[in-house]
Amino acid sequence: MAGMIRKSLNEPEETRPFEDGKGKLDLVHLEAGGVGRAVFEPGWQWSKHVKPIAKTDSCQANHAGYVLSGRMKIVMDDGEESEFTAGDYMSVPPGHDAWVIGDEQCVVIDWAGYADYAKRRD
């Protein structure tokens, strides 16, 4: 049996900034994958601020997370849409765009989809 593991998102092992200073992802690495805290600034949109980094037509991450603050709208490639707010659990499959609603940061903890999120593809 493995021992305890302590890692802190306040001392991330990696930070990935979004385009135009519209937020960042702080990440800690675990054997089972990454756990991250993303801060999405007002005006952030995946297709504007992460697409140039990911180089895919839509977000291909499978998200399982918890919204700590703010509001985010997510629209799937097939047109399905939902809005997530503070206190919501989110499960979002690959193939979507997303953006911050309003003038408050949206902060999300994700334990499924951030290992490769906003990772530069050259």
From TrEMBL:
Residue span, Cupin type-2 domain: 63-110
UniProt signal peptide: none
SUPFAM superfamilies from the UniProt entry: RmlC-like cupins
Gene3D superfamilies: Jelly Rolls
Name of one Pfam family that matches: Cupin_2
Comp. bias intervals (Basic and acidic residues): 8-22
Region Disordered: start-end pairs: 1-22
CDD domains noted in UniProt: cupin_DUF861
Protein name as annotated: Cupin domain-containing protein
Record organism: Arthrobacter sulfonylureivorans
